[in-house]
Structures are given as C-alpha cells and as structure tokens.
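User: Okay, second chain of the day. Same drill as before: sequence in, structure tokens out.
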Amino acid sequence: MLTKYGKLDSMTNITPHHFRYSFCRNLANAGTAIAVIKRLARHESVESMMIYVDSSYEEQLKALKKM
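Assistant: Same drill. Structure tokens below.
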C-alpha cells in the first residue's frame, strides 16, 4: 500500500519503518512530549526514542547561525 501511494507522489523505497520514523520525527519537531511519542510509536524504552529527537546536521548548523 505504501509503495502504491508513494509512486503517486514520485516517492521511492517507502517502507513502514520510514513512515513510522517520519511520523515520530514530525511529532518531535512539533514539540510533542517524548512520552507521548513513545506511547504512539509503541516503543519499549525512551532510549529508543532518541533517534527522533537527535538533531540533524542541518539543524545544528541552523542553531549555530542563530548565535
């Protein structure tokens, strides 16, 4: 199903994992509490949630440029 609808938007290699990651990352970027994201994603531990709140290289550069 993800492949079918991904092709409609010219997206390739869409997997359930990518979809889940994007969902959780967008929640984290919107300021959603990590405990809420953990519950929605059905993760066992908060430590596994760090991939969603860890800043990207671009986000780090943006933060430095604000200084």
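The chain has a mean pLDDT of 81.

User: Thanks, on to the next one.
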